[in-house]
From TrEMBL, chain A:
Domain FAD/NAD(P)-binding: 3-302
Pfam families in alphabetical order: Fer2_BFD, NIR_SIR, NIR_SIR_ferr, Pyr_redox_2, Rubredoxin_C
Cofactor: [2Fe-2S] cluster; siroheme; [4Fe-4S] cluster; FAD
Pathway, per record: Nitrogen metabolism; nitrate reduction (assimilation)
BFD-like [2Fe-2S]-binding domain location: 426-476
Protein name (database record): Nitrite reductase (NADH) large subunit
Annotated residues for binding of siroheme: 688
Organism: Wenyingzhuangia marina
Similarity field: Belongs to the nitrite and sulfite reductase 4Fe-4S domain family.
Automatic annotation (TrEMBL), chain B:
Keyword Isomerase listed: no
Entry protein name: Nitrite reductase (NADH) small subunit
Originating species: Wenyingzhuangia marina
This protein's UniProt keywords: 2Fe-2S, Heme, Iron, Iron-sulfur, Metal-binding, Nitrate assimilation, Oxidoreductase
InterPro entries documented for this protein: NasD-like, Rieske-like_NirD, Rieske_2Fe-2S, Rieske_2Fe-2S_sf
Length: 839, 124
C-alpha cells in the first residue's frame, strides 16, 4: 500500500480526493489530508452567501463522514511545517511526522495585502476564509452599534471584491469599492462593459471609485479613512481587502522545490514539481508561468495528478479555458476566450443598450469564421452556447452579429439546436461531461428526465450553470426520437394541469385520494401534485384552505405565510387600500397585544410578523371581531387590487379608482388560481397605482376604462398588454371575469399571467378573441364558472375559527403538550422585534 | 448551531431502550404530520394512512435549522416515503433520513409503533 499525503483541504485538495476515490482500487492507497483551517473543505466560490445565512454547513464540499467512509484520514487544524524530501517525510506544527510515497501540495493561496502604510490597523480585514467573514461581520455589528451612518470600503474591484461589496451593503453600511485600475474586473471586462456594470452596481447603492491608489490608511489604532492623495481622503470605518491572491508556496520554497520569481510552485503539464514524487495543484501551482485563480482549471489539475499517480498519461491542455460566468448581485456577467482581444487576432462586434444596461461583445477572427472570445454584461443567457461555439471552434453564422442579436428576419434561431454541438463538446465543465455522454443516456439507455441523466453522469451537480443546456439536449434528443415531451404535473400524474382541471370537473372528483387512485400512480403523491389538486378543488368547487388540509401548500395549510424562523405573518384584507382611522387603531391594538412586528406591504395593506402557530387563531379571532377578514396573502389567489386615490380627491382623476378597486377586490377575493393574482386601478394615465405592472390593470381614460392583462413586477418585470379600450365598468368586470377564468383553466402550476400570456399560442390577440369575440364559444361557461365562485366566497379564517376542534387543533405546535416552541427567539430591531439569527 | 443537530441521531429499532408514549392515534392527522415533545426534544411523526405506515424524524430541518418539518407535506419519490420541508421544499427520505435533492445534510429518523391506539416513539 502506498501513502499519499495531501497538504491543503480546500476545494482542489478535496477534488483530488474525490477523483482518486472514484478511480483508484480500494485498499491500494492510504490517504491522509492535512487542513490548516478548523473545518473540512468548503466552497469558497460561494463564500459571499455566508454573509447572508452564516450557514457553513451549506458551503461544505463533503461532511467528515465522507472522508471516513472512504478511509481517508482528515486532520484539520494542523499546519504542515516542513517537507524533508530526502527521507520523504513531513512534520506538522504539533511535531508529528508522516512518511509519503506521493505528496500533493494543494496549499492554495492567501489574500494579497498590498504594502500600504497603516494597513495593519484595526478594522482592516481580508476576504478569504469563513473565519475572516466571521471577524468582518462582528466588526460591522460593532460599527452599527456605535455609529450611525457607518461606512465601509472594499479594496479591489475584481469579482470577489464586488461580491463582498454587495454583502456589506446588505448588512447596512454605506459601501465604496476602490479599484486601482481604470475599470472594474480588469481581467475580464473592457472599459465599456465595466461602465455598464458600474451603473448597475451604483443603482444598488455601491459607490465605485476607479483609478485610486491608496497612499495611507488613516487613523490612530483603528482605521478612519483611506488617503488617496494630499487632497483626497475617503472617510471609512472599516476596510475589506480583496486585491488579489498570493500562492502559498512557503513550504515548497523551504524544501528547495523550484518556485517562480513572483511566487507559485513550478509544475510541468503533468502537474509534477521539480521533485517527481511531489505534485502541486490549484492556486499554488505555477503552470506556463501562470497562476490559475479559477476553480475549473484547479479541478482539471487534480484530475491530471490523479491520473499520473495511477500510471496514466493525462496532461493539462496547452490552452486553459479561463471563461467565467457569474451573477453579481443579480447582474449577469460573463467573459470567455480572448475577451480583451489581447492576441490582437480578432475584430469586435459590440451591442450596447443603455436603457436596459446590457452590453454584449464578441471577438471574431479576422476571416470572420471563428469566435475567439467575448463579454456579456446584463444578459448572459447566450453564454453557454457562445462558450461552446468558442471551445469547439464551431462554424459561426455568415453574419456573426446574429450570435448576439439573434437572426433578424429569418425563421431560424441563430445558434441552431444544441444537438449541433460535436459529441466531444464538454457541456458540464465541473464534472467534465460531454454532449455525447448526455445524449447517449437518452438515445441508448432510454433515460428521459434531467434527474436520471444527472444521477448517471453527474452533469449539473456542480455549479448547475449547464442545467438549461443539459435540459435542451435531453428534450431535443427525445424530440429527434419522435417522443413528444409533455408537461406533466409530476411523476405521479401523466397529465398537465389543464388536463387535470378538465378531469376533476367532468368526473366530479372531490378528493386527492380519489384523483390519484383513478388517474395517478401510487397512493401518496408529492409536494408538487398535492397543492395542484388542492388548487383545482378550490378553483372548481370553491373549496377553501380548510378543506383537504394535508394536501395544502405550506401557507394554505395554516392560512398564513410561514416566515424565516417558522413563525407566521398575518395580513387582513384592506380592499383597495382604503382604511378608516378606527380600523387603524384596532390594528395597532392587536399588533401591540401580540407583540407583532408591523410593516406596510407593497400592496398597500398591513402585515403583522412573528406570530407563533398557536397564536394565529387568537389573533384572527380579534381581527374578525373587529370586522376584518382574511387577506389571502398566503394563497395562490387574489392578493390586492391597488388603487390611486382617483377623482374623489385627485385634481387630475378621470374616474373613481378607489371605489372601483374596492368593488373588484371584493369580487375576486378568495379566488384561487395557478399562481397569485394582483390587480390595480388607476384614475388616470399618470398611473399612480402602477396597474400595468399587475396581472390585470384598469386605467381610467376619456370615455371609459382601458383594461390591460398579463403585467408583472418581480424577477421578470412585464408591462400588461391592452385587452380592451374605453369600456364601461360592467364590461371591465365581464372581460376580467373571463380572462381570469380562462387563465385558471389553462395555465400550468405556478405560472403567472405574464408567463401564461407569453406562452399561449396567438398571445394577446388570441385572448381578445376568446374573451371578447367568444371565438371558442366558451364565454357562457366562463361567466357561469366565475359567478359560481364569486357567490360561494366565504372568509376562510372565520370558517377556521368556528370549526376549531380543541382535541385536534392544527394550530398547536405539539400534539402532546400545550407548550409553545421554545426554540423561537427574537431580538429587537428599531423598537420592534425580528427573528434571532443563528449564531 | 450544529449543537442542535447533535441532539438528534437516527435510531434503529434494535437500539431502542424506551418507547415514549406520545399521544392517541386520533390526534394525528390522516396522511399528515404532527410534532411530539419528547422530553426536551421535538420529534415529527408522520401518519401515512394511505399505506398504513408511520414514520418519525427530527422536527428541525437541517437546511435552515427551524423546527418545522412536522408542518411539511408527506409524499413519495420512486417508492421512498418522504417529507418536504414547508420552508424551502427540501425533501428527505423517511426511511434513511437522506436528503433527496442531492444535498449533503440529512435528518435523523426514529422507529414508531402503534399499540392499543397509542403512538410510541423509539428512544434511547
Amino acid at each position: 500500500m502506498k501513502t499519499i499525503l495531501v497538504i491543503g483541504n480546500g476545494m482542489v485538495g478535496y477534488k483530488f480526493c474525490e477523483k482518486l476515490m472514484a478511480k483508484a482500487k480500494s485498499g491500494y492507497y492510504k490517504v491522509i489530508v492535512f487542513g490548516e483551517e478548523p473545518r473540512p473543505a468548503y466552497d469558497r466560490v460561494h463564500l459571499s452567501e455566508y454573509f447572508s445565512d452564516q450557514n457553513a454547513e451549506r458551503l461544505s464540499m463533503a461532511p467528515r463522514s465522507w472522508y471516513e467512509e472512504n478511509n481517508i484520514e482528515l486532520i484539520t487544524n494542523e499546519r504542515v511545517t516542513d517537507i524533508h524530501r530526502a527521507s520523504k517525510t513531513i512534520t506538522t506544527i504539533s511535531d508529528k511526522e508522516y512518511t509519503y510515497d506521493y505528496l500533493i501540495l494543494a496549499t492554495g493561496s492567501s489574500a494579497f495585502v498590498p504594502p500600504i502604510s497603516g494597513i495593519e490597523k484595526k478594522g482592516v480585514f481580508v476576504y478569504r476564509t469563513i473565519e475572516d467573514l466571521d471577524a468582518t461581520m462582528s466588526y460591522v455589528e460593532e460599527i452599527k452599534k456605535n455609529k450611525p451612518n457607518g461606512k465601509a470600503a472594499i479594496l479591489g474591484g475584481g469579482l470577489l471584491g464586488l461580491e463582498a461589496g454587495k454583502a456589506i451593503i446588505d448588512m447596512g453600511l454605506k459601501t465604496s469599492v476602490v479599484e486601482f485600475a481604470p475599470r472594474l474586473m480588469p481581467r475580464q471586462l473592457d472599459g465599456d462593459a465595466s461602465k455598464v456594470l458600474q451603473r448597475k452596481l451604483e443603482d444598488l447603492g455601491i459607490d465605485i471609485l476607479l483609478n485610486k491608489g491608496t497612499q495611507n490608511i488613516e487613523g490612530q489604532d483603528s482605521i478612519t479613512g483611506m488617503k488617496f492623495s494630499e487632497e483626497e481622503t475617503l472617510p471609512v470605518d472599516m476596510l475589506l481587502v480583496s486585491a488579489g491572491i498570493r500562492p502559498r508556496d512557503e513550504l515548497a520554497k523551504t524544501c528547495g522545490l523550484d518556485v517562480g520569481t513572483r511566487g507559485g510552485i513550478v509544475v510541468t503539464n503533468d502537474m509534477k514539481t521539480s521533485d517527481d514524487s511531489i505534485y502541486a495543484i490549484g492556486e499554488c501551482a505555477l503552470l506556463n508561468h501562470m497562476i490559475y485563480g479559477l476553480v475549473a482549471p484547479g479541478y482539471d489539475m487534480a484530475g491530471v495528478a490523479v491520473d499520473q499517480i495511477l500510471g496514466g498519461d493525462a496532461l493539462m491542455p496547452t490552452a486553459i479555458d479561463m471563461s467565467t460566468k457569474l451573477k453579481l448581485s443579480g447582474i449577469d456577467v460573463a467573459s470567455f476566450g480572448d475577451a480583451l482581444n489581447e492576441a490582437k487576432e480578432s475584430e469586435s462586434i459590440v451591442y450596447e443598450n443603455k436603457f436596459q444596461g446590457i452590453y454584449k461583445k464578441i471577438n471574431v477572427s479576422k476571416d470572420g469564421k471563428k469566435l475567439l472570445g467575448g463579454i456579456l454584461v446584463g444578459d448572459a443567457s447566450d453564454y453557454n452556447m457562445l462558450h461552446q461555439i468558442f471551445l469547439n471552434g464551431m462554424a459561426i453564422p455568415e453574419n456573426p452579429e446574429d450570435l448576439i442579436l439573434g437572426a433578424r428576419g429569418g425563421e431560424e434561431a441563430s445558434f441552431g439546436s444544441a444537438l449541433d454541438l460535436p459529441d466531444s463538446a464538454v457541456v458540464c465543465s465541473c464534472e467534465a461531461v460531454t454532449k455525447g455522454a448526455i445524449c447517449c443516456k437518452v438515445n441508448d439507455e432510454g433515460m428521459t428526465t434531467l434527474k436520471e441523466v444527472a444521477a448517471a453522469t453527474k452533469a449539473t451537480t456542480g455549479c448547475g450553470g449547464c442545467k438549461p443546456m443539459v435540459t435542451d439536449l435531453i428534450n431535443e434528443s427525445l424530440k429527434a426520437q419522435g417522443v413528444t415531451v409533455k408537461e406533466t404535473v409530476c411523476d405521479h400524474f401523466d397529465y398537465s394541469r389543464q388536463e387535470l382541471y378538465d378531469i376533476v370537473k367532468l368526473k366530479g372528483i372531490k378528493t386527492f385520494d380519489e384523483l390519484i387512485s383513478s388517474h395517478g400512480k401510487g397512493k401518496l403523491g408529492c409536494e408538487t401534485c398535492k397543492p395542484v389538486a388542492a388548487s383545482l378543488f378550490a378553483s372548481i368547487y370553491a373549496d377553501t384552505g380548510n378543506d383537504h388540509n394535508v394536501i395544502q401548500d405550506s401557507n394554505d395549510k395554516f392560512l398564513a405565510n410561514i416566515q424565516r424562523n417558522g413563525t407566521y405573518s398575518v395580513v387582513p384584507r384592506v380592499a383597495g387600500g382604503e382604511i378608516t382611522p378606527e380600523q387603524l387603531i384596532v390594528l395597532g391594538q392587536i399588533g401591540k397585544k401580540y407583540d407583532l412586528y408591523t410593516k406596510i406591504t407593497g400592496g398597500a395593506r398591513i402585515d403583522f410578523f412573528g406570530a407563533e402557530l398557536h397564536e394565529l387563531p387568537l389573533i384572527w379571532k380579534d381581527l374578525i371581531d373587529a370586522g376584518f377578514e382574511s387577506g389571502h396573502a398566503y394563497g395562490k389567489s387574489l392578493r390586492t387590487v391597488k388603487s390611486c386615490v382617483g377623482s374623489t380627491w385627485c385634481r387630475y382623476g378621470m374616474d373613481e379608482s378607489v371605489s372601483f378597486a374596492i368593488e373588484i377586490e371584493n369580487r375576486y377575493k378568495g379566488l384561487r388560481s395557478p399562481h397569485k393574482i394582483k390587480g390595480g386601478v388607476s384614475g388616470c394615465i399618470r398611473e399612480c397605482a402602477e396597474a400595468r405592472g399587475k396581472d390585470f390593470g384598469i386605467i381610467a381614460v376619456e370615455g371609459g376604462w382601458n383594461l390591460y392583462i398579463g403585467g408583472n413586477g418581480g424577477a421578470t418585470p412585464r408591462h400588461a398588454q391592452l385587452l380592451a379600450e374605453k369600456i364601461t365598468n360592467e364590461e371591465v368586470i365581464r372581460y376580467t371575469d373571463r380572462f381570469l377564468m380562462y387563465y385558471i383553466k389553462t395555465a400550468g402550476p405556478l405560472v403567472r399571467t405574464a408567463a401564461w400570456l407569453d406562452k399561449i399560442e396567438g398571445g394577446i390577440e388570441h385572448v381578445k378573441d376568446v374573451v371578447i369575440n367568444d371565438s371558442l364559444g366558451l364565454c357562457e361557461q366562463l361567466d357561469n364558472d366565475m359567478a359560481g365562485l364569486v357567490d360561494a366566497y366565504k372568509c376562510e379564517w372565520k370558517e377556521a375559527i368556528e370549526n376549531i376542534d380543541e382535541q385536534n387543533n392544527r394550530f398547536a405546535h405539539f400534539v402532546n403538550s400545550n407548550e409553545s416552541d421554545e426554540t423561537i427567539e427574537f431580538v429587537s430591531l428599531r423598537d420592534q422585534k425580528m427573528p434571532k439569527l443563528w449564531a | 448551531m450544529n449543537s442542535i443537530l447533535e441532539n438528534y441521531k437516527s435510531l434503529a429499532e434494535s437500539e431502542v431502550t424506551t418507547w415514549f408514549k406520545a399521544a392517541p392515534v386520533s390526534k394525528f392527522p390522516e396522511n399528515g404530520g404532527a410534532c411530539v415533545k419528547v422530553n426536551d426534544k421535538q420529534i415529527a411523526v408522520f401518519n401515512f394512512t394511505a399505506e398504513g405506515k408511520w414514520y418519525a424524524s427530527q422536527n428541525v430541518c437541517p437546511h435552515k435549522m427551524e423546527m418545522v418539518l412536522s408542518r411539511g407535506m408527506i409524499g413519495e419519490d420512486c417508492g421512498t416515503p418522504k417529507i418536504a420541508c414547508p420552508l424551502h421544499k427540501k425533501t428527505f427520505s423517511l426511511e434513511t433520513g437522506e436528503n433527496l435533492n442531492g444535498e449533503d445534510y440529512s435528518i435523523a429518523v426514529f422507529p414508531v409503533k402503534i399499540e392499543d391506539g397509542f403512538v410510541y416513539i423509539g428512544t434511547r
